[in-house]
Amino acid sequence: MTSDRPRVLLTTEGTYPFHGGGVSTWCDALVSHLPEIDFTLLAVTMHPYVQQRYPLPENVRALVTIPLWGIEEPAEYSWREPFSSVLRRRWETTEEVIGGQFLPDFERFIELAVGGSRDVDALAACVFSLHEYFQRYDYHHTMRTPEVWKSFRAGAAAAARRGALAGGEPTFAELAETLRLIYRFLLVLDPPVNRSDVTHSTAAGFCGLPCVLAKLQHNTPYLLTEHGVYLREQYLNLRRSVKSTFVRATLYRLVESVVALNYALADQVSPVCHYNARWERWLGVPAKRVRVIHNGVDPRRFGPAPEGRRDGPPRVASVGLIYPLKGQLDLVDAAAIVRQAVPDVRFDIYGSASDDVYLRECLARVDNLNVQSTVTFQGPTSNPAGVYQQADVVALPSVSEAFPYAVVEAMLCGAAIVATDVGGVREALEGTGVLVRPGRPQEMADAILKLLSDQEERRALGAAARARALDRFTLDMVLSAYRDSYAALAASRCLLSTTAREQVEVAI
To answer: What's the CA gap between 332 and 349, in Å, rounded?
Structure first.
């Protein structure tokens, strides 16, 4: 390491320390249980008004937020920069500067990032040039000029004509919306990237670009942890949320390019399950740079109920963000089927809503199926262990997953689990739970009914699940793996620096 206390830049996107969920649980455990490491936390957020959910330990030396929405320009959140510097940058951002120093790189970026190019080296050089420009000149004034609009319009239209972008010739509204989104997403290129011993991104997305820049500027080793497969999840999200074919196709290309940059520049890619590793290798990450590090849970916090389950009606519990990919709509449908055979069954669904529209859809489905007395959306819980302990069955209805904490937590609590066979769920359970296909409420209902009718099977599965989690998925195992990874990456950088210095001395 380059100092007595190792320094790690940890970057997040829409998660820690502002939102709950598996990634935030992982981040909080990492920084809280590695007190010997100094972390700088860079969080890409939706807007600047989101409330911090997690208290930060003392070894988090700084929290930098990059809000993508709710601001007009980066200067609004760059409180560390004096007003005189903001004014100077704006005054120096002249038409001549924009035309001579920005537009060539921006046009090249559009050509490479959304035009279907696979030249990652050229894209990396282009992104770094844009970052260097924004260190000297004003982001907002540059990106809002007519010259940038004309340049983008010409480049995007040309890409559409040659078939690189779907949707045909774009309308004015589609071009304007696309450039507006690019303006927001490229905000991560504006802040300076300070030196650290290692950078660590929690996704192969836009929050990884500061790590890419640190690699290019300072040769800082880059560790990428993939909780979900970012590219796959963005395909699913954009298909649902963006109606315009042209806008969606452009964002697909942009996301593909950002993911490719992260994969190309990361020194170690650590998916949380082997399922993700298969995706990463398929997307071009060399196998030698992939090291799977499973999620782990503290068995001192999660274990079987000391006094067993309390009396009451049969209970099915589910814990997770209320979000389309988590599949709560399917669980509501399954609950309606189960109730026909077990009228007094209760389905308790816990989690904060990261998608209010989806929550309203779920509540409307409850009303439409007339299962208000069966299904309850309980909101977030501060005691997930208690939820698992008092459930006869724990259900995970996700459409897409990585290696979910909810499964490992429930395993340690000795729960009988019914889960969809997505991501690394099969890898976690390995025969100690019941798997069903995603998007099949009838299959989930049948599996839940079978377990509700067989207490001995529930006990046997729960005991086997707990034994497996204790053997493979504990927090201490995770911390040891990341501590070793940080040390190895920092040492490799020191070795490279020493070698480079020796080469210079020989040359002299």
So the answer is: 9
